[in-house]
Amino acid sequence: MDLMTHCTHFLLPTIPLDDNKPTLTYALVVLNQKLPTFTPLLWKHAKLRLCADGGANRVFDEMPDLLPNQDPILVRNRYKPDVIKGDMDSIRTEVQDFYSNLGTKIVDESHDQDTTDLHKCVALIEDVTPNLEKANLCILVAGALGGRFDHEIGNINVLCRFSNTRIVLLSEDCLIQLLPRSHRHEINILSSVEGPHCGLIPIGIPSASTTTTGLQWDLDNTEMKFGGLISTSNIVREARITVRSDSDLLWTISIRK
Ligand SMILES: Nc1ncnc2c1ncn2[C@@H]1O[C@H](COP(=O)(O)OP(=O)(O)OP(=O)(O)O)[C@@H](O)[C@H]1O
Ligand SMILES: Cc1ncc(C[n+]2csc(CCO)c2C)c(N)n1
């Protein structure tokens, strides 16, 4: 079984180069929720920046507040999304016109009322990523957690729908990603920016067997299911966590203030 490694390098000001591994190519999707304070950092690391519908209002309204030492007009012009995509029922007209005039591509999919704006954005990123580069793609989603529970679950469902793509859901307080059962996983903890609180949660179906190392409450061939045991309020004990399971799991870890 192949090994998949994970590290939250994107929360650091500069991403360290590793001679042994290809660096990931990041894409950013901004959702319609209060922007996390580290959004300018994610923006800097991303090669492609999208706003999901009303996410564009957040970049327009809140990015200047996150960079208080810079001229708000210049900030607004500099933080220009490459694409705004969604059903366009939340973006304000002045915001759409502003970015459209700067050259942002606007993709109106109001005819599709069966998939969320995040789903639409992830599908676009997959479409424009050449097959050879897909293995190194990592999609960061800002503003995915907290707020409305139906939206949060919809965002988690996107992890399941695109389970072969690396996607990280982020809020100010924590991140969530999917650990597919097809791989064993090594999670390298950057203790300056994340932890110690973490969780491992079976999604969709129970896990008959999960084994971990590096946690305060490790699992040893343990069953996890809703209504039974799931691993919440766990604590990172080592810099390297390993996980192996017969089911897809959600990995969540707190982000330091
Ligand atoms: N409160 C929230 N919590 C988590 N994610 C959110 C929240 N609000 C919006 N989002 C995310 O941002 C995306 C864009 O938000 P937007 O408000 O434009 O969606 P929407 O389709 O108009 O939602 P709705 O019509 O259900 O209110 C959503 O698809 C969702 O992924
Ligand atoms: C069974 C079912 N439940 C809810 C919706 C509504 N819905 C789901 S995604 C979406 C787009 C949001 O931008 C909307 C309106 C549906 N279509 N089918």
TrEMBL record:
Every Thiamin pyrophosphokinase thiamin-binding domain range: 183-249
InterPro entries: Thi_PPkinase (IPR006282), Thiamin_pyrophosphokinase_euk (IPR016966), Thiamin_PyroPKinase_B1-bd (IPR007373), TPK_B1-bd_sf (IPR036371), TPK_catalytic (IPR007371), TPK_catalytic_sf (IPR036759)
Highest taxon, organism lineage: Eukaryota
Protein name: Thiamine pyrophosphokinase
EC number annotated for this UniProt entry: 2.7.6.2
UniProtKB keywords: ATP-binding, Cytoplasm, Kinase, Nucleotide-binding, Transferase
Organism listed in the record: Coptis chinensis
Cell compartment(s), UniProt: Cytoplasm, Cytosol
UniProt record similarity statement: Belongs to the thiamine pyrophosphokinase family.
Function: Catalyzes the phosphorylation of thiamine to thiamine pyrophosphate (TPP). TPP is an active cofactor for enzymes involved in glycolysis and energy production. Plant leaves require high levels of TPP for photosynthesis and carbohydrate metabolism.
Principal cellular location given in the protein's record: cytoplasm
Transmembrane segments: none
Annotated metabolic or biological route of this protein: Cofactor biosynthesis; thiamine diphosphate biosynthesis; thiamine diphosphate from thiamine: step 1/1
One of the record's GO cellular component terms: cytosol
GO term, biological process aspect, one: thiamine diphosphate biosynthetic process
Keyword Glycosyltransferase: no
GO molecular function, one term: ATP binding
Catalytic activity: thiamine + ATP = thiamine diphosphate + AMP + H(+)
